[in-house]
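Budget justification aside, the reviewers requested a transparent look at the raw inputs and outputs of the sequence design task funded under Objective 1. We therefore reproduce one unedited record. The lines immediately below are the structure tokens for a 356-residue chain.
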């Protein structure tokens, strides 16, 4: 098989010579040979499928580090590489939808439309709420924290030696926003609070400690969601329950890639391994931030994994659909977790959107 100059290979692969030189430096697409005297790069036709895949993945905006992983997988297991690409694009679409909501919110705010006004000027909807936690029947201490107030719902699940302190500090940082943050500042306020909490965990906790966090802050027209880890938020609307957060766990990434089913994930030995958490590491602490539209009659549940890993989705749906008040739903859900052996701490926060 004859060699191709970098120019010929660039034309065949639809990559520029400049891009090929960059990908060589990054180890993404190494030439078959580099002339020791001239430094010219030479390629072979067998490299074209990988190069063309690189070109297509760059066109869809995949980061270079991820492209390298997908290309390596493509060479050994093309079907799985396809599933990984599909999972990546599903995540892009989810994040794009969240950014679209944010753009709409900011446009309304800056143009003076009603949706951008503060909570006191905005809506005749209010939140009716309750929260509770329980140590469970196995764990020696309770490291979960739950909070429900007029504008804020929050659940945090601490881990490690300082887990209780970490979860409490995370929720306290958000409680401080209830009266101080309005309008377009809501998402910035949530992001800043999470960053402060993570820095505090880096400076004040032992190395194995941290917390997950899921919280929703009422703007008067929408709920601003911040989420990191495997605590969850659910929505009951028109009799249907949907999950509105995405777990930052190893098993969820495997589900997204198509290499693990949701049923298999429940018994996977690494099902509790977190990919993101407020553990003091800048790499692991990036939260999901988005705005969520609210309609009267919505019921929201935030909970730790001590609930949803032992109480099935049908029971969660039944309780959310039948409990008369948020406090009743919280009590019944915790009781169900305890009835299943209470192997972990459990935390719940429930709120109803009601008109006044």
């Amino acid at each position: 098989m004859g060699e191709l100059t970098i120019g010929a290979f660039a034309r065949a692969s639809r990559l520029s010579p400049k891009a090929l030189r960059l990908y060589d430096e990054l180890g993404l697409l190494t030439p078959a040979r580099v002339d020791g005297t001239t430094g010219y790069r030479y390629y072979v036709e067998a490299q074209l499928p990988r190069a063309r895949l690189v070109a297509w993945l760059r066109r869809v905006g995949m980061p270079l580090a991820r492209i390298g992983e997908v290309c390596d997988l493509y060479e050994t297991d093309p079907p799985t590489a396809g599933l990984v690409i599909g999972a990546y694009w599903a995540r892009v679409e989810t994040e794009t939808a969240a950014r679209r909501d944010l753009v709409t919110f900011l446009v309304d705010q800056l143009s003076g439309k009603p949706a951008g006004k503060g909570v006191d000027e905005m809506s005749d909807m209010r939140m009716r709420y309750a929260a509770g936690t329980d140590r469970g029947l196995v764990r020696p201490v309770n490291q979960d924290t739950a909070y429900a107030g007029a504008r804020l719902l929050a659940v945090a699940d601490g881990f490690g030696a300082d887990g209780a302190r970490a979860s409490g500090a995370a929720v306290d940082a958000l409680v401080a926003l209830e009266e101080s943050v309005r309008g377009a500042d809501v998402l910035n306020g949530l992001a800043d609070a999470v960053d402060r909490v993570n820095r505090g965990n880096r400076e004040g906790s032992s190395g194995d400690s941290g917390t997950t966090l899921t919280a929703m802050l009422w703007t008067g027209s929408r709920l601003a969601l911040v989420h990191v880890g495997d605590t969850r938020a659910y929505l009951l609307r028109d009799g249907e329950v949907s999950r509105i957060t995405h777990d930052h766990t190893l098993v969820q990434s495997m589900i997204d890639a198509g290499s693990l089913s949701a049923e298999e994930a429940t018994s996977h030995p690494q099902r509790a391994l977190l990919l993101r958490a407020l553990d003091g590491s800048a790499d692991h602490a990036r939260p999901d931030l988005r705005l969520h539209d609210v309609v009267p009659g919505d019921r929201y549940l935030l909970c730790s994994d001590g609930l949803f890993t032992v109480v099935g989705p049908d029971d969660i749906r039944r309780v959310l659909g039948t409990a008369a008040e948020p406090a009743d739903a919280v009590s019944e859900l915790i009781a169900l977790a305890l009835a299943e052996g209470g192997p972990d701490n459990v935390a719940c926060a429930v709120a109803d959107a009601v008109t006044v």
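The longest helix spans residues 78-111. Residues 115-122 have pLDDT under 50 and may be disordered. Computational costs for records of this kind are itemized in the attached budget.
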